[in-house]
Amino acid sequence: MRKPWRSFLLFIGLGAAGAAALIPYSLEAVEATMAASGIPETELPPAWMLGLLSMINPLLLTTIAVVFGHLLAHRTGLTSVIVSRDRGESDAGASSVAWTRAGIAGLLLAVLFLVTDLLLGDRVPATLSFGAQEPSWYTFGIALLYGGIVEEIMMRWGLMSLLVFVGWKWFQRKKSTPGPVVFWSAILLSSFLFALGHYGATALEAEVTAVLWFRMLVLNGAGGIVFGWLFWKYNLETAMAAHMGTHLALHLLYFLFLA
Question: By residue range, what is the domain housing residue 240?
Answer without folding.
Answer: 5-258
